[in-house]
């Protein structure tokens, strides 16, 4: 595969997936699980790219690139570091989502990267992977 990379980001200021502004006394602190409370609950309209019974992939509402899709488990998994993230069926669905999104959006021809934010203040407390392209930085 051309141009596919996995980057685990562990810093404030990354692509957190939250649409909420950060208040001054809480700078960098995620206050809630935006994915469960807004996306999976249906409170926010999304543009779905792919899903199965375990995973949802959708266009990020505030894209950081020409193509920016977020892949999330439908079950609450607090972080990539949580033991629940080791579920083989869930991981297979997450990778399948990346493969399907890449093919559907043409990223399999132009390159892309996958970014997993975890364990940092400001990161939405729900495991999520960003598919970003075309190309790699």
Protein described:
The protein is α+β, with helices and mostly antiparallel strands and 137 residues long. 20% of the residues lie in helices and 24% in strands. It has a single domain, classed as 2-Layer Sandwich (HIT family, subunit A), CATH 3.30.428.10. It has helices at residues 34-40, 88-104, 107-110; strands at 4-9, 48-51, 55-59, 67-73, 112-117, 129-133. A six-stranded mixed beta sheet has the order 1-5-6-4-3-2. Strand 3 and strand 4 form a beta hairpin. The longest helix has 17 residues, at 88-104. It is globular. Mean pLDDT is 83; it is low at 1-27.
| Structural shape | globular
Strands across the major sheet, in which order? 1-5-6-4-3-2
Rounded average pLDDT? 83
H/E element order: EHEEEHHEE
List keywords for this structure.
3 helices; HIT family, subunit A; 137 residues; 24% strand; alpha+beta; single chain
Describe what is shown at a glance.
Helices cover 20% and strands 24% of the residues. The protein has 3 helices and 6 strands.
């Amino acid at each position: 595969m051309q141009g596919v990379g996995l980057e685990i980001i562990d810093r404030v200021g990354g692509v957190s997936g939250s649409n909420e502004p950060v208040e001054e006394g809480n700078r960098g602190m995620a206050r809630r699980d935006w994915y469960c409370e807004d996306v999976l609950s249906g409170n926010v309209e999304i543009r779905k790219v792919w899903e199965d019974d375990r995973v949802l992939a959708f266009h990020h509402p505030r894209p950081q690139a020409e193509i920016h899709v977020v892949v999330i488990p439908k079950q609450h998994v607090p972080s990539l570091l949580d033991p629940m993230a080791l579920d083989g069926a869930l991981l297979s669905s997450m990778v399948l989502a990346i493969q399907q999104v890449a093919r559907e959006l043409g990223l399999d021809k132009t390159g892309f990267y996958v970014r997993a934010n975890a364990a940092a203040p400001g990161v939405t407390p729900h495991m999520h992977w960003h598919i970003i392209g075309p190309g790699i930085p």
